[in-house]
Structures are given as structure tokens and as C-alpha cells.
Description:
By secondary structure, this protein is an alpha+beta fold. It folds into three domains: 5-54; 60-173, Uridine Diphospho-n-acetylenolpyruvylglucosamine Reductase, domain 3 (2-Layer Sandwich); 180-289, 2-Layer Sandwich (Enolase-like, domain 1). The chain has twelve helices and 14 strands. The longest helix is centred in the last third of the chain and has 24 residues, at 266-289. The radius of gyration is 19 Å and the shape is globular.
Amino acid sequence: MESYSYAAPSNVSEAVTLLAGNASEGRQTQILAGGTDVLVQMRGSGHSPRTLLDIKALAETNRLEVGPNGIYIGSAVPSAVINENAELQVALPGLLEAADLIGSTQIQGRATICGNLCNASPAGDSIPAMIAAGAVCDIATADGSKELLVEDFVTGVGQNALQVGEFLLGLKLPMPRPETKDAYLRFTPRTEMDIAVAGVGVSLTVIDGICIAARVAIGAVAPTARLVPDAAKALEGTDLNEQVLAAAGEACKAAASPISDKRGTAEYRKKVVAVLCRRAIALAHQRIQGA
Ligand SMILES: Cc1cc2nc3c(=O)[nH]c(=O)nc-3n(C[C@H](O)[C@H](O)[C@H](O)COP(=O)(O)OP(=O)(O)OC[C@H]3O[C@@H](n4cnc5c(N)ncnc54)[C@H](O)[C@@H]3O)c2cc1C
């Protein structure tokens, strides 16, 4: 009878070889980062035996770099570590507020934002914030590595674009200029330890009172988090007045295709995503103004 097994390779090529070897033998492998989803899923029914491939011993996945040429967040870096990084607090307050919403302090001591992305829940809090911040996936492959925009990474509910033998090494993000700030807001029926009914990530660049660039992404209102280019278009070239914010909110509402469930109807989720969009834009704008 097949059982679970555990491997903790010490370099990326060993990890990729193990993934490929298991695949050719027809044995499943699952990457283990913080395990806050994996361990819950292991207790669920229908989770067949597999090799858990722990990526926490790899130098590459533990990289955390913040510099003028860009930011790198390795896939084994827990949320608690990024949340306490003083440079990231200044550069990406929105991404950090999303990471800070994932579970409790205890969960954040283990959970990674890359695990949140790979798990590909429609309600994954960090995903809209990553998309808004322009994050790019750095993926380990048999031939080396490749890059993919975060907005193209999640392909469906619980599904991502990783091919057999690949895993996520980390995220590359541009270092925002001083006039660029992000924000993430979600709505949950309970104040804590709940998943989003709707979420919005926003990144704005404002110079001399005019928004010159914007990225808006929505979460929990479609099978995957979505970039909303029409919301960005409504903002760019404006002074971010109330009318413009309302137009961006309407664009988010139009881009949403939510389900109805016990936590909210589709109609309700659409209303909420429009409100969150307006508030997240206002918050990012306040951050740029230093308010
Ligand atoms: C009590 C509790 C509260 C929670 N609250 C929230 C919440 O508010 N918001 C929210 O969004 N989530 C929440 N979660 C879900 C979970 O904590 C997050 O999704 C977390 O970010 C997952 O990260 P992890 O490192 O623990 O991933 P893991 O559990 O290790 O992995 C998650 C999935 O991604 C895959 N994976 C992980 N890393 C990689 C990689 N580098 N390459 C390829 N595949 C990989 C794994 O194989 C697995 O399928 C909660 C979970 C719990 C238990």
C-alpha cells in the first residue's frame, strides 16, 4: 500500500529531479511550504498518498531582497517575516496588509504568500495585492527557470499554471517609486479568521496631483483574482475625484462574476467589490500624500 513520504532537498536541481522522477513513476508529489493549507487538506477526504517536497531548506526560496532594482520574496519566506520588514512596510504597504490578513499571528509564522498564490483559492488574500503590485512568478523548471505574471498564474479554482516538474521559487516585484503606493482591502462577515467575500488590491502612481498609472485587481468575486484594466483606465489622467472613484468601482463590479453562497449573494458581492475599490483607491492615494 502506498503511503505519504517526505523529502527536503538541499538544492533546486535535486528538487526538480525529484519532481520529475516521481512524475515518471506515476507517484504524486506536493510542494510543502508553510503547510497551513497542505496540512488541513491532508486531513480531508480524497487526499491520496504522495511525497511532500519541503522547499524550506533551499537557499533560493529563503531569499528576501529589497533594493533599488527590485524586490524578491522567496517562496519559503513566511508572512510574519515580510510583515516585519521595515523596507517592505514602506515600499508595499498594500501587499503587507494582505499578508497580515492571512489567518492569525500563529498562521503567519508559517504561511507564505507564495503558498497562498499556489493554493489558488479564489479568496486568497495576497493574490489581488500581488497583481496590483505587478508581481512576477519566478518558476523553477527542468531547464532552469521561467517567469510568468501573477495575473496569468492562477488558471482556475485550486489550479495554477505550474507544469509537471515545476515549482515556484519566489516573486519578483518592481521597487515602487516614492509616488507609488498600494492598498488592499477585503470584506469578511467576521472581523478575523474568515475568508474574503470580496477583496480589492490597488496600486497608484500620483504626480502633481494627477494619477499617471494605476493597477486594480479584484479577488473572491470570480474563479480567479482578476486584473481590471477598465478600472485603471478610469483613474489614469485624473485627480482621483469622487466621480472617478465611482467609475473605477463600477468597472470592478462589471469585471466580477461571483457565486452566491451562504456568505453572500452574487449581487451583494458585486456591490461590495465596488465599495472596496473606491476605499482602496482612497487609501493608496492617502498613502502617497503621506496622510
Ligand atoms: C486558520 C487558518 C486561517 C486562514 N486564513 C486565511 C485568510 O484569511 N486568507 C487567506 O487567503 N488564506 C487563509 N488561510 C489559508 C492559508 O493559510 C494560506 O493560503 C497560506 O498563505 C498558505 O501558505 P503556506 O505556505 O502555508 O502553503 P502550503 O500549505 O505549504 O501550500 C499551499 C498549496 O500551495 C502549494 N505550494 C506551496 N508553495 C509552493 C511553491 N513554492 N511551488 C509550488 N506549489 C507550492 C502546496 O503544494 C499546496 O498545494 C488560512 C488557513 C488557516 C489554517
